[in-house]
Structures are given as C-alpha cells and as structure tokens.
Amino acid sequence: MASGYLVRQGDRCDTVSVLLDGYCYGQKDDGEGNCQIVSLAISGDVIGLEHLYLLTTDHNVRALTTVDVAMIPLSAVQQLSASRPAIAHALGIHQAINHAIAREWIVNIGARDGLRRVAHFLCEFAVRCDAWRSDTAAGYELPMSQEQIGQATGLTAVHVNRMLKTLHAAGLIERSWRNVVFSNWEGLRDVACFSSDYLHPGRQVPAPGYRTV
Amino acid sequence: MASGYLVRQGDRCDTVSVLLDGYCYGQKDDGEGNCQIVSLAISGDVIGLEHLYLLTTDHNVRALTTVDVAMIPLSAVQQLSASRPAIAHALGIHQAINHAIAREWIVNIGARDGLRRVAHFLCEFAVRCDAWRSDTAAGYELPMSQEQIGQATGLTAVHVNRMLKTLHAAGLIERSWRNVVFSNWEGLRDVACFSSDYLHPGRQVPAPGYRTV
DNA sequence: TTGTTAGACTTACATAGGTTAAGCAGACTT
DNA sequence: AAGTCTGCTTAACCTATGTAAGTCTAACAA
Fold first, then answer.
1. Nucleotides of D under 7 A from a protein CB
2. Nucleic acid strand C: bases within 7 A of protein CB
3. Residues of A whose CB is below 8 A from B34
4. Does B99 sit within 8 Å of A95, measured CB to CB?
5. Amino acid A52: pLDDT
6. Cα–Cα–Cα angle for A207, A42, B103, nearest 5°?
7. How far is the CA of A147 from the C1' of D23 (A)?
8. How far is the CA of A19 from the C1' of C10 (A)?
9. Which of A12, A110, B51, B139 is most buried, taking the most CB atoms under 10 A from its CB?
10. Interchain CB distance below 8 Å, B109 and A107
11. What share of chain B has pLDDT > 90, as a percent?
12. Mean per-residue pLDDT over chain A, rounded
C-alpha cells in the first residue's frame, strides 16, 4: 500500500509492523552520505520488533516495492505477548533469526570477495523466498537495482554488474532485467559457501511451559 | 577462569552465560578458512541469549582474555523470565542492543574505508568500556592483536597497522603495545563519524505492567 | 513526436588495500 | 644463553575494486 519510508532513523516508534506483501529493507547512514543496507524483509516478516525494547530506532526501514503492511500499536503487541506467552516466544525466535542473519551479513561483507559476496546474497534471498524450490526455469524476481545490491553487499553498482556477468559466464545463473534463474544451484551455493544453517530452518526451542494455572 | 571456546558453531546449547570479568568475541567461519569476528562481549554482558530461542548456535564464542563466566542452565533462565517479567524484559533490551551493534558493524565494514573503520572500532570499544570518561592520559588496554582487529573490521593485520599509524600521525591516538590513549577524542570521533546512538544509552522501553494480580 | 528519466551495461583508468617477505622485540622453554 | 614463539612493524609489489564517463534501452510525460 504505502511506498517510501516505514520508519526513520531516530524516530520514536510505537508500532510493530507485519509485512503482508512486498519487500522492505533496513538502511543506515554511515555519517558521510553513504547508505548501507543492513537487512531485508520479505512477505510474512515482522518489522520493528526492537521497538518493544528500544525507544528510538537506529535505522530506516524503506519499501523496496509496493507493500502491504499491518501496523500494530506497541501496546497491543505488549498485551498479546503478556497474555499469550507462546506468541511472545515466537516473536523472540523471529528476532533471534534476524540477528543471526545480521551476523552472517557481517561475515559476507567482511570476509568474502565480491564474487562470493554477490553469490551469497543471491542464495540467501532465494532460500528466504523459497524460490529455489520452484521451477528453476521460471526463476524469480529480485526486486532490487544493482545499485541497491551494491549497498547491501558493500560493493559499487559497477562491480555488482561485473560479478553478475562473471556468475553468468560461469554458467551459474541466467538473467534478464531483474529476473534471476539458477542454472546451477549447487555450483552457486559452492561459490558462495552458502549454508542455510544460520537461517535456522526447522525446529527451534519450544515455548517453555509457563505454568499459570 | 576458562580460556578458549565457550560455545562452538553448531553446538546444541542449553546454557546462557554472564561474563563477569574479561572479554569474549563471537566468530564465524566464512566456509573457506577465513574467520570473521562478529561481536564483542565485555564484563557484564550476557552471552548466548539466543539459546532461549534457537536450538543450535551459528557462531563460536571465544575468550579474548582470561575470563570469569557464570553459566546458567537454560531452564533456570526460562523459569526466571516467566516468574519475573521485568527480567525477561531486561534480557530483551540487552539482545536488542546487541542486534543494533551488529547492524552498525555491517555499516562499518560495508560503507567505511579502512581508516574510518578502525577509528570507529576504537570508539565503540572505548564507549562500551566507558574508557573515554576516565583519565585520557591513562588510556585503556585493547585486549586484541592487530590480527584480531583486522578480523573484526574486515581488514588485514598489515593494513590495521597502517591505519593505526595514520591515526597516530594525525595526532588522534597514542599507543604503546596494546595500550591506547585518545589524545584527541573529538577528532577521532569525527573521523569515524561515531555516534553512540546505536548503543542506545539512557532510557529504554519500560517493562510493561504485566497485571498478574 | 520529442524529451526526460532510471537503470543496465561497458570501458579506461586510478587507488585502497591485499600479499609476501623480512626484521625485530618481548615472553617463554630448555 | 640459546632457541622458539607470537605479534608488531615496515617495504615492495600486485590486484580487486572504485571512479568517471559514456552508451543504450524501456518507460513515461508533454
């Protein structure tokens, strides 16, 4: 529905949002005009869980596409969490996974070279969207400009373009406009050293039995 | 007390630790032998809060110095959180701040050049340790080798050395061995574009009134 | 039709930072 | 005291990535 900023750095925030449809990204200024993308949110993600704990936001949240968002007053989330511990626990899991993704981004930007960085970024996006399961020929749409991919990976748009071309030349991906097809998923995953462990798929800690009886 | 690993990547973890004394760091492998430092813990920090939510760990936690750690069984933390909502809330705040620090590290590594990266790292460490308040002449001890600073900032040890020398030449810091003195705190902060906002000092969201009566 | 814009794509060139190698100092062993 | 280690330091060289500038296309507006 909305487009543009959902949250602004420095804001006092009193809502938690659920992204019903579309894509958003978190962004921080480095203090000299450069912007770094620090997170990505896809349909179903909860945005701004930290508002439950921190009075002001330290980063912007912006829409990448047209989005559909449910904004829930903080007090409602607090009441819900208090009365339904299982929901509080689920929010905690969500937050912990987002934190794990941030750690992996630090590794990606800090330790990998350009090619592996872009490859890893593509892998993560695909797995998070479940796109890699679907018909490979169909591919998926990456709703970001090369400039934005650069801001997420700590590279310039020019270099992102080079790396995408290299991945294509290596027969790992096919592309047209923003559509990406994995011609060789295994190969791409190997280049990126991608493992989905940090996304913590599968089981998490079950909600402890709060004996309120 | 202990030295070496506190937690290993892939472990099933059933304790939460409180770092009573010393320094620890979080570390992840990039899949090709390079190690990236993804977090730092100082005295008073709680380590492994994500174990409340995730069954396995996605990163190592290692001691940087001799450390004194209290390891608390997960079940005890769960019980404490259930019976004392204010404590659960405090843990949430702690976790949210750690997440905010991770975001800032992404910005630091992804958007800043070597000099500003190292400067920012020094600023963050100093502020987190409160060292910048104390007698500037005394300085503080940074318990990391230049190799480790490099792993935290995404640079090589050689380049960290160059940057430290440059910061010294600019009259911003003095050093001898691992002792760092801020000869010009304002100057260093400006170079780094450091603002402590992301550490969320001061007030956070007060614990909501859980009416259990 | 013409203009305007945003983004993909390319080339030529510049440089920050990586690599390798070596010297040196302090701490620890034997 | 000789040997070994780790970490700091410096220098020479190299390359991955950034910078600047331009072309091309698609979409859109007047």
1. 6-12, 16-21
2. 6-12, 16-21
3. 111-112
4. yes
5. 96
6. 80
7. 18
8. 38
9. A110
10. no
11. 81
12. 91
Please state which CATH number belongs to domain B113-199: 1.10.10.10
Q: Could you tell me if B90 and B49 are in contact, meaning their C-beta atoms sit under 8 angstroms apart? A: no
Q: Quick one: pLDDT at residue B132?
A: 66
Closest residue by C-alpha to C1' distance, nucleotide D6:
B145
Assess whether the region A5-83 and the region A113-199 belong to the same CATH fold.
no
- State in words which class domain B7-83 has: mainly beta
Question: B30: part of which helix (H) or strand (E)?
Answer: none
CA-to-C1' distance for B147 and C30, Å?
A: 29
Q: What is the pLDDT of residues B91-116, one digit of tens each?
A: 999 999 999 999 999 999 999 999 99
Q: How far is CA B24 from the centre of its chain?
A: 8
CA distance B159 to B121: 14
Query: Do the beta carbons of residue B16 and residue B78 sit within 8 Å?
Result: no
Residue B174: which of B127, B142, B133 has the closest Cα?
A: B142
CATH number of A5-83: 2.60.120.10
The domain ranges of chain A are 5-83, 113-199
B78: chain A residues, CB-CB within 8 Å: 208
Q: Which helix (H) or strand (E) holds A168?
A: helix A157-169
Residues of chain A with pLDDT under 70: 1-3, 131-138, 210-213
Average pLDDT of chain B to the nearest whole number: 92
Chain centroid to CA B112: how far?
A: 19
Residues of B in contact with A195 (CB under 8 A): 31
What residue type is B56 in one-letter code? T
Rounded (to 5) percent helix, strand, coil in chain A: 40, 20, 35
Residue A24: C-alpha distances to residues A50, A131, B77, B85, B128 (Å):
16, 17, 34, 32, 31
Q: Give the C-alpha separation, A20 to A42, whole Å.
A: 8
Distance in angstroms (rounded) separating the CA atoms of residues A151 and A172: 23
How many other C-beta atoms can be found within 10 angstroms of the C-beta atom of residue B124? 21
Instruction: Give distance CA A151 / C1' D30 (Å).
Output: 35
**Facing A110 at nearest CB: one of B36, B58, B198:** B36
Q: Report the C-alpha gap between A94 and A49 in whole angstroms.
A: 9
Give whole-number Cα distances, A29 to A26, A154, A201, B103, B128, in Å: 11, 13, 31, 11, 21
**pTM (two decimals):** 0.94
